[in-house]
Specification:
GO terms for molecular function: DNA binding; DNA-binding transcription factor activity. This is MarR family transcriptional regulator. The chain is mainly alpha-helical and 171 residues long. It has six helices and three strands, in the order ααβααββαα. The protein is 68% helix and 7% strand. The relative contact order is 0.08.
Length: 171
């Protein structure tokens, strides 16, 4: 009895596995992008309900992420508080609108420190309240509980680590 596996059969099996991973990976990428856009839609809807048009969803999310911190524009990106490429534009716009204070650092005059004004704090609090409403209903309405979030967060952290390694080690 010949029990050797033919090389073509192994190759076909790997191709099927690769296609399965490819399809799932592409679906995950699509979902990550879509979820970010959907979060912005949810935030925009919250401000629309309040009749506020003075800030957009990206700016509101940025204000929420700054919170009570005082930091530089560069730290916004390095800490993951801002995901877009035009952080300078949005910071300048938020300063002009009176949502962010900015002042030159006493130590390094080239560096600008930013923090929220009272109006900026109000917007950040609106986003925080929205999130709190979601937290109280997501298990009951969305069917997503502690176990699911724990598993999802572990997987997303692993994907984040993989992407970081891809950049660092040019995988």
């Amino acid at each position: 009895m010949n029990t050797k596996i033919k090389p073509q059969a192994v190759s076909n099996f790997r191709d099927q596995q690769d296609q399965g991973i490819r399809d799932l990976y592409m679906e995950s990428l699509h979902l990550v992008e879509r979820l970010h856009r959907r979060l912005l839609d949810v935030i925009k809807d919250e401000f629309d309900r309040q009749g506020r048009s003075d800030v957009n969803a990206i700016q509101a999310l940025l204000l929420f992420n700054i919170g009570n911190s005082e930091l530089t524009a560069g730290e916004l990106r390095s800490r993951g508080y801002y995901l877009g490429s035009n952080v300078s534009y949005n910071v300048k716009k938020l300063v002009d609108l009176g949502f962010i204070n900015h002042q030159r650092s006493r130590i390094d005059r080239r560096s600008v420190r930013i923090s929220l004004t009272d109006t900026g704090q109000d917007i950040a609090e609106t986003v925080a309240k929205l999130y709190e409403r979601h937290i109280t209903s997501i298990d009951k309405v969305g069917g997503i509980g502690t176990d699911e979030f724990t598993q999802m967060n572990k997987l997303l952290q692993r994907l984040d680590r993989f992407w970081n390694d891809s950049i660092m080690y040019r995988l």
